[in-house]
Amino acid sequence: MDALPPTLPRLMVEDAVRAALLEDLGRAGDITTNATIAPDATATAELSSRENGVIAGLGLAEAAFRLMDPAVRFDAKVADGDVVKPGDAVASISGNARAILSAERVALNFLMHMSGIASYTKRFADEIAHTQASVCCTRKTIPGHRTFEKYAVRCGGGSNHRFGLDDAILIKDNHIAVAGGVAKAIEAARAYAGHLVKVECEVDTLDQMREALKAEPDAILLDNMTNEQLREAVETNKADNGGRVKLEASGNVRFETIRAIAETGVDYISTSKITMAAPTLDVGLDIRLG
């Protein structure tokens, strides 16, 4: 069954966009627009893509114009998650010219950044589409923008890892060092967590992986392992545990390496590249004359 499309709560969108507009407007507002454009002037503008990519962030772009003037009309020509090519219309905007011009940069900042993440994620997802693996984002996101960046990953065909420190337990190497070992850390996590909280444990070696399997976490993160080690981990999981524990590969995952990693048989591949290294998608806004 296909998953329903990702959504963003309106309250989160409006709060973030309002903060961005206030940052841009500063103490005196848009003095360039206010000095050159009559208060009652109207305009029609078009958002269009200037390169191939995947659109994400239309709701934030619309909010930017509507917060400047609720009467501005925003007519989306595509939906988040749609593939576009150079010249494709993304949206048309009409209404008060001052509102359109003052909101332009904030709208484009969100749209270009999020569409860039969606587009880059799609490249990774397409590269491993022939395997069972899913590409996942991490907590390496721009502070304050995690919700939107993780939404963009979904629009590009990727999956979300945990959103923060509070929605899943991920036992990392430093936790293991202080807790006194892999098994002890997993057992402590199981005793602490509620029945709906997933437990994942990071391991650096196959010996640690075998120790983790015996404690049966929900998932094991295989950190910085070679492809040969990943294959052995997959086979060990099948032999010792019937493949019940999900295996995630992580560590220095790049576009050039993700195909070979996916072909080892792991379930998930997490990488910060899709959020932290994604270039923006070039989207422009042009006023229509006449």
Task: Set down the secondary structure blueprint.
Layout: H1 10-25, H2 31-36, E1 42-49, E2 53-54, H3 58-68, E3 73-76, E4 83-84, E5 89-96, H4 97-127, E6 134-136, H5 146-155, E7 169-171, H6 173-179, H7 182-192, E8 199-203, H8 206-215, E9 219-223, H9 227-241, E10 246-250, H10 255-262, E11 268-270, H11 273-276, E12 283-288
Parallel strand pairs: 6-11, 7-8, 8-9, 9-10, 10-11
Antiparallel strand pairs: 1-5, 1-12, 2-4, 3-5
Helix pairs in contact: 1-3, 1-4, 3-4, 4-5, 7-8, 8-9
Would you kindly provide a written description of the structure presented here, covering whatever features stand out?
By secondary structure, the chain is α/β, with parallel strands linked by helices. It has two domains: 10-115 and 279-288, Quinolinate phosphoribosyl transferase, N-terminal domain (Aldehyde Oxidoreductase, domain 3); 126-276, TIM Barrel (Alpha-Beta Barrel). The chain is built from eleven helices and twelve strands. The protein has helices at residues 10-25, 31-36, 58-68, 97-127, 146-155, 173-179, 182-192, 206-215, 227-241, 255-262, 273-276, and strands at residues 42-49, 53-54, 73-76, 83-84, 89-96, 134-136, 169-171, 199-203, 219-223, 246-250, 268-270, 283-288. The strands form three sheets. The protein has a six-stranded parallel beta sheet. Strands 3-5-1-12 form a four-stranded antiparallel beta sheet, covered by helices on one side. The protein has a two-stranded antiparallel ribbon with strand order 2-4. The longest helix has 31 residues, at 97-127. The chain is elongated. It starts with 9 loop residues before the first helix and ends with a strand. The mean pLDDT is 96.
